[in-house]
Amino acid sequence: MQDLDKIPGWFFGANAPKGYFTRFDQLFSEAPNGKCFLLKGGPGTGKSTMLKKIASVLMEKGLSTEVFYCSADPGSLDAVVTSDGKFVAVDATLPHAAEPKYPGAYEKTLDLSDCWNEKNLREHKKEIASLFDSNRRLHEEARRYLSAAANLLEEAGRLGAESLFFGKTENAALKICAREIGKKDKKRGTEKQRFLSAVTESGVVFMNRTPEILCERIFAFEDETGAASRIFMNTVRKYALENGFDVITCKCPLFPSEKTEHIFIPSLKLGFITSNKRHSADIKVKRTIHSSRFYDPKKYSRHKIRIRFALRLASSLIGEAALCMKEAKSLHDELEYFYIKEMDFSLVEEKTAKILDLI
Q: Staple 206 to which of 69, 82, 279, 282, CB 3.0 to 4.6 Å?
């Protein structure tokens, strides 16, 4: 099996304050020969193993491939796609359930429930139902912690914005863009959205290897409040798209609809990442941009204690959310035990072979 660490890896979704958030809609391109496989099945039924085999075959065939990991279990795959979006295989069960939009024409559902012994599973229905319910409650508890953390981070950002030199921040971004990006054509570039980090059972996990795979030049923007980095990244994104460059933007998992944290321009092998104490990037960068020069020191000093308090408490709440997810993962492992022993994995292998034949 091919080494998946050699291809870009993302998180499929984020355990966000308002519930699980995913951008499945960003993965599939309804091209004439496009294929999308929706995998249905319980925990431990072989979906992740199937996805890893599919990714390996795509790589062997020389197709540009991306893999998407599960934020609840970073060692497990949730999706495999070709970068052009013409081939997608995705775990379409809760919490990222998906149904076919054009069944048969583009999407095909593969149900693994006919690979298990339902009679034996029903003999343990009370234990299984209890584990599922407890798992869901823990994830809901984690989201409440994350919601509180997001409110505090938003407050820190608001306080930071009150002392921010907006024009100076924007001009610094434009200067770097002119030098590092330049101009391509007047046709607007396209955008993909991904998650490079997520809150997991181990805390905030950052996919360090992905920027290193995609980029030869990486600029890290260090900013604790998020006020300066928001302006900087928005400026870079707008400049790149308006000058005809395709980009990959990565949203903050706590603000998945609003805040851009990282930007990659694959054709230039160029990346811009946000770094802070919550997700410090352990990668080699061309240049680190310190946000302190974009804040008015006198104004910032008035809010420093409140900002530090908000950030410290937010980090603590994120830690509590991670503990909830860790406990939920242990329950998920117990659920896998019930399903694994009742699975006929030879049937799963047959279904996997049918997908591989269609690649």
A: 279
